[in-house]
Amino acid sequence: MISKFIFNNQYLFDELPESDKDLLIRVMKTKNYRKNEAIFTDGTKPNGIYYLNEGKIKKYKVDNDGREQIIYIYSSGEFFGYSAILSQESYGDTTSTLENSVISFISKDSFLEIIDQSPVFSRLLLKSLSHEFSVMANLIAVLSHRTVRERAALSLLILHDKYKSNNFQEEEVLISLSRVDLANMVGTARETLARILNDFKQEKLIRSEGRKIQILNFKQLIHIANFY
Protein backbone atom coordinates (compact mmCIF):
# COMPACT_ATOMS: atom_id res chain seq x y z
CA MET A 1 0.00 0.00 0.00
CA ILE A 2 2.76 2.44 0.89
CA SER A 3 4.16 2.25 -2.64
CA LYS A 4 1.34 4.58 -3.75
CA PHE A 5 3.02 7.42 -1.91
CA ILE A 6 6.69 6.74 -2.59
CA PHE A 7 8.85 9.37 -4.26
CA ASN A 8 9.82 6.78 -6.82
CA ASN A 9 12.89 7.17 -9.04
CA GLN A 10 11.74 6.95 -12.66
CA TYR A 11 14.99 6.26 -14.51
CA LEU A 12 13.21 7.61 -17.59
CA PHE A 13 16.46 8.18 -19.47
CA ASP A 14 17.33 4.47 -19.25
CA GLU A 15 14.06 3.51 -20.95
CA LEU A 16 14.75 5.57 -24.07
CA PRO A 17 16.00 4.10 -27.36
CA GLU A 18 19.68 4.81 -28.07
CA SER A 19 18.78 7.25 -30.85
CA ASP A 20 16.68 9.33 -28.45
CA LYS A 21 19.42 9.26 -25.83
CA ASP A 22 21.86 10.59 -28.42
CA LEU A 23 19.49 13.45 -29.26
CA LEU A 24 19.31 14.47 -25.61
CA ILE A 25 23.02 14.07 -24.87
CA ARG A 26 23.93 16.33 -27.80
CA VAL A 27 21.90 19.25 -26.42
CA MET A 28 22.54 18.77 -22.69
CA LYS A 29 24.67 21.33 -20.85
CA THR A 30 25.85 19.93 -17.53
CA LYS A 31 26.63 21.99 -14.43
CA ASN A 32 27.64 21.27 -10.85
CA TYR A 33 25.38 22.75 -8.17
CA ARG A 34 26.23 23.27 -4.53
CA LYS A 35 23.97 22.25 -1.68
CA ASN A 36 21.03 24.66 -1.12
CA GLU A 37 21.44 26.26 -4.54
CA ALA A 38 18.21 27.31 -6.29
CA ILE A 39 17.50 25.90 -9.76
CA PHE A 40 14.29 27.75 -10.55
CA THR A 41 11.79 29.73 -8.49
CA ASP A 42 8.02 30.06 -8.26
CA GLY A 43 6.59 32.56 -10.74
CA THR A 44 9.54 32.68 -13.14
CA LYS A 45 9.28 31.76 -16.82
CA PRO A 46 10.84 28.44 -17.91
CA ASN A 47 13.55 28.50 -20.56
CA GLY A 48 14.35 24.80 -20.53
CA ILE A 49 14.14 21.52 -18.63
CA TYR A 50 16.52 19.72 -16.28
CA TYR A 51 17.90 16.22 -15.84
CA LEU A 52 19.35 15.18 -12.48
CA ASN A 53 22.53 13.16 -12.98
CA GLU A 54 23.59 13.03 -9.33
CA GLY A 55 22.17 14.35 -6.08
CA LYS A 56 18.80 15.21 -4.57
CA ILE A 57 16.44 18.09 -5.38
CA LYS A 58 13.54 19.36 -3.29
CA LYS A 59 10.41 20.83 -4.84
CA TYR A 60 8.54 23.13 -2.49
CA LYS A 61 5.98 25.88 -2.02
CA VAL A 62 6.23 28.87 0.33
CA ASP A 63 3.09 30.08 2.10
CA ASN A 64 2.15 33.67 2.92
CA ASP A 65 4.01 33.44 6.24
CA GLY A 66 7.21 32.36 4.52
CA ARG A 67 6.94 28.75 5.65
CA GLU A 68 8.28 26.12 3.29
CA GLN A 69 6.41 22.91 2.45
CA ILE A 70 8.34 20.23 0.57
CA ILE A 71 6.00 18.48 -1.86
CA TYR A 72 8.36 16.29 -3.87
CA ILE A 73 11.95 15.07 -3.93
CA TYR A 74 13.84 14.23 -7.11
CA SER A 75 16.81 11.89 -7.20
CA SER A 76 19.26 10.88 -9.93
CA GLY A 77 17.67 9.69 -13.17
CA GLU A 78 14.71 12.08 -13.16
CA PHE A 79 13.77 14.95 -15.49
CA PHE A 80 12.08 17.96 -13.91
CA GLY A 81 10.85 21.44 -14.73
CA TYR A 82 9.13 20.42 -17.96
CA SER A 83 5.49 20.68 -16.86
CA ALA A 84 5.64 24.50 -17.01
CA ILE A 85 6.83 24.37 -20.63
CA LEU A 86 4.19 21.83 -21.63
CA SER A 87 1.46 23.96 -20.01
CA GLN A 88 3.01 27.22 -21.29
CA GLU A 89 2.91 28.70 -17.80
CA SER A 90 5.33 30.06 -15.21
CA TYR A 91 6.82 27.74 -12.63
CA GLY A 92 4.31 27.03 -9.88
CA ASP A 93 6.92 26.04 -7.30
CA THR A 94 10.59 26.35 -6.38
CA THR A 95 13.36 23.77 -6.62
CA SER A 96 16.75 23.73 -4.92
CA THR A 97 19.46 21.21 -4.14
CA LEU A 98 19.42 19.16 -0.95
CA GLU A 99 23.05 18.17 -1.53
CA ASN A 100 25.81 18.81 -4.04
CA SER A 101 24.30 17.81 -7.38
CA VAL A 102 25.12 17.43 -11.07
CA ILE A 103 22.33 18.70 -13.33
CA SER A 104 21.99 18.84 -17.11
CA PHE A 105 20.01 21.62 -18.77
CA ILE A 106 18.14 21.30 -22.08
CA SER A 107 16.92 24.52 -23.68
CA LYS A 108 13.22 25.01 -24.37
CA ASP A 109 13.70 24.99 -28.17
CA SER A 110 15.78 21.80 -28.10
CA PHE A 111 13.30 20.14 -25.75
CA LEU A 112 10.31 20.93 -27.98
CA GLU A 113 12.19 19.70 -31.06
CA ILE A 114 12.99 16.39 -29.37
CA ILE A 115 9.38 16.03 -28.21
CA ASP A 116 8.30 16.36 -31.85
CA GLN A 117 10.87 13.80 -33.02
CA SER A 118 10.49 11.22 -30.26
CA PRO A 119 7.08 9.75 -29.46
CA VAL A 120 8.74 7.45 -26.91
CA PHE A 121 10.21 10.40 -24.98
CA SER A 122 6.85 12.18 -25.06
CA ARG A 123 5.05 9.12 -23.72
CA LEU A 124 7.55 8.53 -20.92
CA LEU A 125 7.46 12.18 -19.87
CA LEU A 126 3.67 12.09 -19.59
CA LYS A 127 3.91 8.89 -17.57
CA SER A 128 6.48 10.48 -15.26
CA LEU A 129 4.41 13.66 -14.91
CA SER A 130 1.30 11.65 -14.07
CA HIS A 131 3.24 9.76 -11.39
CA GLU A 132 4.62 12.96 -9.88
CA PHE A 133 1.21 14.64 -9.66
CA SER A 134 -0.30 11.47 -8.20
CA VAL A 135 2.38 11.31 -5.52
CA MET A 136 1.91 14.97 -4.58
CA ALA A 137 -1.88 14.72 -4.45
CA ASN A 138 -1.79 11.55 -2.36
CA LEU A 139 0.87 12.91 -0.02
CA ILE A 140 -0.98 16.17 0.62
CA ALA A 141 -4.23 14.27 1.23
CA VAL A 142 -2.60 11.85 3.65
CA LEU A 143 -0.55 14.39 5.59
CA SER A 144 -3.45 16.79 6.03
CA HIS A 145 -5.33 14.22 8.13
CA ARG A 146 -2.46 13.03 10.32
CA THR A 147 -1.03 14.12 13.65
CA VAL A 148 2.53 15.46 13.66
CA ARG A 149 3.81 12.14 15.04
CA GLU A 150 2.01 10.24 12.27
CA ARG A 151 3.30 12.65 9.62
CA ALA A 152 6.86 12.29 10.89
CA ALA A 153 6.66 8.49 10.74
CA LEU A 154 5.19 8.54 7.24
CA SER A 155 7.76 11.07 5.99
CA LEU A 156 10.60 8.85 7.23
CA LEU A 157 9.12 5.85 5.42
CA ILE A 158 8.80 7.85 2.20
CA LEU A 159 12.34 9.19 2.50
CA HIS A 160 13.71 5.72 3.14
CA ASP A 161 12.35 4.57 -0.21
CA LYS A 162 13.74 7.66 -1.92
CA TYR A 163 17.21 7.25 -0.47
CA LYS A 164 17.38 3.49 -1.03
CA SER A 165 17.12 3.99 -4.81
CA ASN A 166 20.90 4.08 -5.13
CA ASN A 167 21.66 1.48 -2.47
CA PHE A 168 21.87 -2.30 -2.85
CA GLN A 169 21.66 -3.31 0.81
CA GLU A 170 18.50 -2.04 2.43
CA GLU A 171 19.94 -2.25 5.95
CA GLU A 172 22.52 0.37 4.99
CA VAL A 173 20.04 2.99 3.76
CA LEU A 174 20.65 6.28 5.53
CA ILE A 175 18.31 9.25 5.18
CA SER A 176 20.52 12.33 4.93
CA LEU A 177 18.30 15.38 5.26
CA SER A 178 18.68 18.48 7.39
CA ARG A 179 16.29 18.81 10.31
CA VAL A 180 14.96 22.02 8.76
CA ASP A 181 14.09 20.26 5.49
CA LEU A 182 12.61 17.28 7.33
CA ALA A 183 10.50 19.61 9.47
CA ASN A 184 9.32 21.38 6.30
CA MET A 185 8.35 18.06 4.78
CA VAL A 186 6.47 16.98 7.93
CA GLY A 187 4.88 20.41 8.20
CA THR A 188 5.92 21.25 11.75
CA ALA A 189 8.39 23.32 13.77
CA ARG A 190 11.97 22.10 14.02
CA GLU A 191 11.69 21.88 17.82
CA THR A 192 8.59 19.69 17.59
CA LEU A 193 10.30 17.43 15.08
CA ALA A 194 13.35 17.11 17.35
CA ARG A 195 11.15 15.90 20.22
CA ILE A 196 9.42 13.34 18.00
CA LEU A 197 12.69 12.02 16.58
CA ASN A 198 14.04 11.71 20.12
CA ASP A 199 10.92 9.72 21.05
CA PHE A 200 11.47 7.45 18.02
CA LYS A 201 15.07 6.90 19.14
CA GLN A 202 14.00 6.06 22.69
CA GLU A 203 11.47 3.59 21.27
CA LYS A 204 14.27 2.07 19.14
CA LEU A 205 12.42 2.81 15.90
CA ILE A 206 15.33 4.74 14.40
CA ARG A 207 18.95 5.50 15.04
CA SER A 208 20.64 8.74 14.09
CA GLU A 209 24.13 10.10 13.75
CA GLY A 210 24.34 13.79 13.00
CA ARG A 211 21.80 14.50 10.27
CA LYS A 212 21.66 10.86 9.12
CA ILE A 213 18.73 8.65 10.13
CA GLN A 214 18.31 4.89 9.74
CA ILE A 215 14.98 3.15 10.26
CA LEU A 216 15.25 0.14 12.58
CA ASN A 217 11.63 -0.94 13.02
CA PHE A 218 9.55 -0.59 9.86
CA LYS A 219 6.53 -2.48 11.17
CA GLN A 220 6.10 -0.21 14.20
CA LEU A 221 6.77 2.95 12.19
CA ILE A 222 4.07 1.95 9.69
CA HIS A 223 1.75 1.35 12.65
CA ILE A 224 2.51 4.80 14.08
CA ALA A 225 1.94 6.38 10.66
CA ASN A 226 -1.54 4.82 10.74
CA PHE A 227 -0.94 3.67 7.22
CA TYR A 228 -1.84 0.18 6.04
TrEMBL record:
Any one annotated GO CC term: cytosol
SMART domains registered for this protein in UniProt: cNMP, HTH_CRP
Domain Cyclic nucleotide-binding positions: 12-132
Swiss-Prot/TrEMBL keywords: DNA-binding, Transcription, Transcription regulation
Segments forming domain HTH crp-type: 146-219
Pfam families associated with the record: cNMP_binding, HTH_Crp_2
Top-level taxon of the source organism: Bacteria
An MF annotation (GO) of this entry: DNA-binding transcription factor activity
Name this protein carries in UniProt: Crp/Fnr family transcriptional regulator
Native organism: Chryseobacterium pennae
